Every structure is written in C-alpha cells, then in structure tokens.
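Q: I'm a student working through a structural biology exercise. My instructor gave each of us a protein and asked us to get a predicted structure, then write a short paragraph describing it. Mine is DUF8053 domain-containing protein. I'm not confident about reading structure output yet, so if you can add a plain explanation after the tokens, that would really help. Here is the sequence I was given:
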Amino acid sequence: MGFRKLVERDGSGTVTLNKDDLRLDGMVDAEGNIREQEMHVQRLSRGAYLVRAVENGTVPEIQKLLRCDD
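A: Happy to help. First, here is the predicted structure for DUF8053 domain-containing protein. I'll explain a few features afterward.
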C-alpha cells in the first residue's frame, strides 16, 4: 500500500491514483495514456472517501464492486 499526498489543484483537493491499478481496470491504453473517465467521489466519514468509476451514467453499488464472483 502506497501513500499519496493530498494537494490543491485549481481550488480543489486532488489525490493521484496508481497507474498500475488503473491499468488493471482498463483505464490505461496501449500507449500508457490514462483515458478520461467520469468518477464519483463519496465522503464516508472524517478522512475516508470512496472513489468509483461511473458506468453508463450510473454509480455502481458497492456490493457489486466487492463481489469476487464476477
């Protein structure tokens, strides 16, 4: 588990995601470019956030994402 730094960018807090993890999810093309993807960020509690890729205009349910039988 690597640590990431929260930085200010254009007036918002920004944290980068590991490119290798994005590659596993098909978000990096053959040339190594990260494709644009709408993301949903949900604050769960103090200091805890959940980031999900939007699929077909909807935010996937957490239970669906955590199932290992897909």
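A: Here are two points you could use in your paragraph. The helical segments are 19-24, 62-66. The chain has a mean pLDDT of 91. It's a good idea to check both against the output above yourself.
Q: Great, thank you!
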